Amino acid sequence: MRCKGIVLAAGRGERLGALTEKTPKPLLPVAGVPVIARLLECLVQAGVDEIGVGTGWRSSEVMDYVRKEFDQEAQVIYVEDYERGPLHTLVGTLKALEGGGTSIVVPADLVVGADDIASLLSAHAPDTTATLAVSTHGHGTKVYADELGKLGGVGMPITGNSEVGVSMMALVVDERFVEQCIAGVLSGESSVVAVLNRAIAAGENVGYYQSEAPWADIDDVTALLDANALVLRSSTTHSVGDVYVPQGDRVEVGEDLTAAREVRLSRGVTLEGPVLIQAGSSIGIGCSVGPDVSIGPQCRIGDRCDLRRTVVFAGATVMTGVGLDGAVVSGTTIVEEGHGSVTE
Known about the structure:
Layout: E1 4-9, H1 19-22, E2 29-30, E3 33-34, H2 35-45, E4 50-55, H3 59-69, E5 74-78, H4 86-96, E6 103-107, E7 110-111, H5 114-123, E8 130-135, E9 142-145, E10 151-154, E11 162-173, H6 175-186, H7 192-201, E12 206-211, E13 216-217, H8 221-232, E14 243-245, E15 250-252, E16 257-258, E17 264-265, E18 270-272, E19 275-277, E20 282-283, E21 288-289, E22 293-295, E23 300-301, E24 306-312, E25 317-318, E26 323-330, E27 333-336, E28 342-343
Parallel strand pairs: 1-4, 1-6, 4-5, 8-12, 17-20, 18-21, 19-22, 20-23, 21-24, 22-24, 23-25, 24-26
Antiparallel strand pairs: 2-3, 6-11, 7-13, 8-11, 9-10, 9-11, 14-19, 15-18, 16-17, 26-27, 27-28
């Protein structure tokens, strides 16, 4: 089945606070790679043959990255008035692509496997207006089904009240649903879910694909840390030359050493997997790093630091003696999980 991919990458990501003031949410690193890169790779692997990326907030940075890394696979579209919401971004992106047909709509911050994307596409029947990916675990908007196994409501029961999981926010749609989205924008609607629920209430054939695979949606600091841990624990998270310690492994450094790609590990450093350290970074004397820690390129970690469940952005610095458990570091700014606090 030929299918377009629509990646919604316009939002600011305000719940991530200071982290998205300088870095657009689609470019936030997950285990050392921008989250949008992982998603685009999954779409290509799943056989999606034309991809449009709808941008807004800090559009030029997203555009530059996608054009550099995915020039042959994706077209970047700036959506005017993107602040009107994801429905407006969806319609604006679709209008910029040629032709109609089937499309898969995903947010740029979705962390999911290519197999799930392929299974969702296969689950979409020709006579179905839309098919939603639903997870049997995790947090998110509740999804309901009716007695015939069709989608019965998202966020609220409409035609069915059997809870089947939470929305993964990946949706395959046909041209009929696109027309309804356009009508929704013209009437002032901002939510894709509202259009979907309206189609369900009207008795249209709306289905769902139920997944048991791990996934993440990066809408706050906790979700970013969850996504980082999820990818780190897979077996394909690191580039050749990065220092990567798999889950369950432990490395103790006796003397100062320089590993591949100029990663410098000082004496007394302990790495508790999974841990990823990228090119040009240095870890100070007596540091304990891991589990679930990724450190981007050209970072400096001071002596006697203790880092667990932490993401350190490229070029960031952690001062001597700092202990972090559930935090993201950007520059010299630390954003802590669950507290909403920012310290420097």
